[in-house]
Predict the structure of Lipopolysaccharide biosynthesis protein.
Amino acid sequence: MTEPIRALDEQDEPALLRDQFRQLLRYRTLLVTGVLLGLLGSGWLALSGEDTYAATGEVSVRSATSDPFAAGASADKGINIGSERQTAVSDAVGTIAAGALAKQGDTVEVGALLSGLQVTNPPNTLVLKFAYTGRTPEQARARAEALAEAYLEIRRERTEDSIDNMVDGYRAQLKPLTEQRDRLAEQETGTGDDVSSARANLIVAISALNQKVSELRALDTTPGYLNKKPVAPQHPTGAGLPLLLGLGGVVGLALGLLMSWVRLVFDPAVRSTRELVRSLGAPLLGTLPRERATAGTLLAIGRPGSRLAEEYRAVAFRLAYDPSFAERRRLLVTAPRGDNDMARAAAANLAAAFAEMGRDVLLVEADLRTPSLADDLGAAHPGRSPRWATGNQDRGWPSDSRANVDVPGSGAFTLVAGRRTDNVPRALTSAPVSRIIAEGGRPGAVVIVLAPPVLSYADAVALVDRVEGVVIVCQPREVHRSDLERIREIIGAAGGSVLGTLLHPGHGRLDRRARRNAPRDGRGRQPATREPAAPRGRYGDPEVAGRTGDPAETLGLRTVDDGRGGRNSAAGHR
């Protein structure tokens, strides 16, 4: 088209994020499933779990000191609070606490007792918080208090053991000094000053050791204080049912988004219009709206107030002013694969839109395997070849398959209806078909060719070199990215180019129900349902039904040839 396709890298990042988020929201089933799983899991935890209670006590840790009231005395001298925290959760503390609880009638193993304990240290303090979680309030209080006291007890024992060991060491040093002092005292009589000096030195050393022993004995070995005794809690711990449900919903939503993202990554279908444009290498011509009033009908052009008709007109105008199409005025309409109904409707409505613009339009149905366009447009009598195609005198398809189709209030176009043929490739590559397609080069003429799905049959590829311009009609969620890339390669290799894509919403629930319940003909196909057109007056305004007393007759889009080369519409003479 006239405007180059911008790469996704040129798009602003917020727009890409919004597009990806919208793609995730398409998988509503996965999102709802994730939320439901989260709610069910949180509800099960809230209703099936036992109530637990937590009791907390605080212990202030201090070191042994000789005079806690002396100037410069520090309570944190030599204390490593990290090591003390590890000691508080050790098996030694658990053993002492289990013994104390056994005397109270609460028999518990050390491992089970320590499993409910949590010891923390507030920053920049010498305080240890003992938090115990039990099945009953009294159990939590008793075990938290027993563990805190067991920690103080084992810390006191270790401090006293250290003092005793040091005292024993000093006494071991005093024993030889005392013995030597006694020997020197015996030798002091009649000796000189050397013996007296040595004895005096021993006395000084013995006095220093005795002083150290006295200082150790005078140490305050209090390990700490239980600042906050554990009390029985009044309410169970843990989140309540409302909070658990809220958390479950959030976790479930995150799970649903994760599943949607995984589904999105492995989804081969086209996920957005940007991805469709990039895969096909052609711009988006338009998106067809879904109209309930058009369910089962083919032509929307000529229907008053139809949004679908306005979209077809916009696409036709965009093609008319596109240089690549305006140069040759030939267009091939096809679908990727599968159902060709929307491509059939697009070809017929684009033909009606160009006829409404005053062009001489020739619609060629190149679907020779399942032709149905003539039946869908209504029973149209064969018409004489248009003035701009009178030079073609060939017999057989496609020359003898012309019919004039009139669109009330919009114009008329010539239909070359398809016909079942044994050798489809030979029929599509025949000289008459080439001459008919070549007529699109005449001034004011437009040739629109309807081909079967390009990936289902090679019929469209056989026509691309003569038509060149191709419009792909597809539903984004029903086509794969690899299919679009393959279509672009096939059409490019055949010498054509993709003018753009036309998106349709697909068959809705009401459309599928109407198609399923509609009667079928002898060949198993559903005949098209036509909405009657109101009689029109001289200037195309609807006439009032029943002016003459007779019931107003409403006819479809059927046109007949008057035998003189002109066309008479059932809705009024042209």
Remarks:
- Residues 8-49+239-265 form one domain.
- The CA atoms of residues 93 and 150 lie 5 Å apart.
